[in-house]
Amino acid sequence: MKTAQLLNYSHDTWIPGSGQLAEIASAIDGSLVATTGSGGLDFKGMLDHARTVGGPALRKLTFHERARIIKGLGLAILDRKEELYELNYLTGATRKDGWIDIEGGAGTLLSFSSKGRRELPDAHVLLDGALEPLSKNGTFQGQHIYTSMHGAAVHINAFNFPVWGMLEKLAPTLLAGMPAIVKPASSTAYLCEAAVRVMIDSGLLPEGAVQLIVGGVGDLFDHLGGQDVVSFTGSAATALKLKSHPVVQRESVRFVAEQDSLNASILGPEAGPGTPEFDLFVKEVVNEMTVKAGQKCTAIRRAMAPAKHLDALEAAIRERLGKTTVGDPRDQESRMGSLVSCAQRDDVRAQVQKLIAAGARIVAGDPAASPGPDGGAFMDPILLRADDPWTASAVHDVEAFGPVSTIMPYRDSADAIALANRGMGSLALSLFTHSPDAAREFIQGAASFHGRMLVINRDNAAESTGHGSPLPVLVHGGPGRAGGSEEMGGIRGVKHYMQRTAIQSTPAMLAAISEQYIPGAPKHFVEGHPFTKRMGELRIGDTLKTTSRTVTIADIEHFAEFTGDKFYAHMDEEAAKASPIFEGRVAHGYLILSFAAGLFVWPDPGPVLANTGLENLRFLTPLYPGDSMRVELTVRSKSLKSEDSGVVRWAVEVFNQKDELVATYDLLTENLP
Ligand code: NAP
């Protein structure tokens, strides 16, 4: 790569930093890769640009429109991934490591895009929970909603996943309708800068939606306000410094922190040598030590086994580590590349010495060795053993952010739980067991200390995504020293960038505000059957009012014979009368649903392709023989699944001849857009 000065992206323009520039060295041989700096940037102006240009442009778009942009960004990255892989090697990462970062990052964008189109409405407001009745006649009700925050999201990222680390924050932020200012860690900023360039070049992002700082953040924190969000990933020390900033405190700036973590993995009490779980455990510990040279916030730092199996575990891990070739990440023979920099390696070596001083001893690897090419940040994977994890607190507290793990014994399940929880909060914990009792005891005893937990065994190992992989659909984060926040988790992560507000008003106002039909709000009784209209033609609140039909005793008996459902309430007058609920025989709930469909369905092929489910079904008033029923079918909300299909959510209300509500539910149909 030609040495270049990295550029900042401020006010929709690529700008070189002025003044003192930092040099970034290749992790492989120490040669100069790039210079970088952010001197001269107008940090306050960047925040203002995000707030006044990027935010309004994003907020104008619906969730679905934003989701389509996010998908386009993911595809653009995949399209130009080879450019990124070339830079990835310079960080010391192998192609497999780079796959997690680059394709994993693009996959996270695609996953959020898909979630956004499936789970969010094609609207600007997200409802939170159900309508809360607040008055007798229903004219005054409560509804919680989420709307986009009006500030800027400041993303400060760690060095280890320069692409994924940026995108896992960017996807939920953009989906929420918030602009972002991204600040990557300096040591791998060239890879992040290249990925930002791909996204800007795609032309998909509205102006002001994304800006980039390749260097220090200057006086940016002095200008933060209560509508901004800081989302930080890195060490606990930096997190503490940033969240203690007086402006963050004074303005109650929302602060999401993903910090370091002494993740544990436990070999189940019954899983001795010879069991599949023992072998799987060994494989996973070695994998987590060597992937990305152990520079993963989720890597296994503490591997715990029943005391009687510790020797066998040590031997098995040593044997497997012996097959790990460390070397130039561009060389396909290399199973493990280098650390990100020689400074990072020095840091890891120093942390290993702290673990040794606390009573752990090295059983594999030499921390002083430099196995790869000259000038590179290579080191051996280091396996430590702590025979007394009860008094050696450092093994639960000192994070060596590299290819380092410590094995330790536990006495029984309660002891394993106590030891695991001494990490004081972690991102991920895995348990290798085939025993449901062990899994229940362990997870219930330790879950409140850990953000994500996996129980791995012979039944799921082949399909497991592994201990160290955060997934866009699951929360990533943990309590205590892990930072106390959560990222991703599907739509949960989007809400970090939105404000929840309780709204109180009439159903009509609540429906207008939330861009969704809310029971009790005005309906538009339409000409023509809504099933003959494509999604684009359907308006929220469009309603079909059906004719009515009478339900007879013969209908009930026929249905009972036909389905075999001869429950007393439908077939035994005396028993039904004697029940505390009914005054006599009643129609089956399923009969009401079937007759309802018979009343509202349009039979011909058309834009409604299929009924995909019912939700929130409630039977409210019994329907007696001789009663009649009719249906009002209302478009509640619409969401797109893909370019070719979508889901319409219909509010179905079944009334009797006295206009009492008999049943209510949401019907989901798959539709042509
Ligand atoms: P770090 O030194 O804390 O740096 C993290 C980020 O903060 C970098 O972008 C850094 O920029 C920036 N930063 C440092 N001082 C700052 C300041 N005064 N103002 C604004 N920004 C500042 O952490 P790291 O060495 O990059 O990453 C390793 C650590 O991160 C490990 O402890 C690891 O466990 C943790 N980590 C956690 C997660 C997670 O999801 N929980 C993920 C990955 C890593 P510069 O590089 O320019 O200084």
Provide the CATH superfamily of the largest domain: Aldehyde Dehydrogenase, Chain A, domain 1
Helix amount, in percent? 25-40%
- At CATH level 2, the architecture of the largest domain is 3-Layer(aba) Sandwich
Shape: globular
Main β sheet profile:
7 strands, mixed
pLDDT < 50 stretches:
none
List keywords for this structure.
binds NADP nicotinamide-adenine-dinucleotide phosphate; Thiol Ester Dehydrase, Chain A; 3 domains; 32% helix; 673 residues; alpha/beta; seven-stranded mixed sheet; Aldehyde Dehydrogenase, Chain A, domain 2; Aldehyde Dehydrogenase, Chain A, domain 1
SSE blueprint:
Elements: E1 4-5, E2 7-10, E3 13-16, E4 22-25, E5 32-36, H1 43-60, H2 63-79, H3 81-90, H4 95-119, E6 126-133, E7 141-148, E8 153-156, H5 164-176, E9 180-183, H6 189-201, E10 210-212, E11 229-233, H7 236-243, H8 246-250, E12 254-258, E13 264-267, H9 276-290, E14 302-306, H10 310-321, H11 342-357, E15 361-364, E16 382-385, E17 404-410, H12 413-421, E18 426-432, H13 436-446, E19 450-456, E20 475-476, E21 487-488, H14 491-494, E22 498-505, H15 507-514, E23 524-525, E24 542-545, E25 549-550, H16 553-563, H17 568-571, H18 573-578, H19 589-600, E26 608-619, E27 628-640, E28 646-656, E29 661-671
Parallel strand pairs: 1-5, 8-9, 8-11, 9-10, 11-12, 13-14, 13-18, 14-17, 16-17, 18-19, 23-24
Antiparallel strand pairs: 2-3, 4-5, 6-7, 7-22, 15-16, 20-21, 24-27, 25-27, 26-29, 27-28, 28-29
Helix pairs in contact: 2-4, 2-5, 3-4, 3-6, 4-5, 9-10, 12-13
The chain binds NADP nicotinamide-adenine-dinucleotide phosphate.
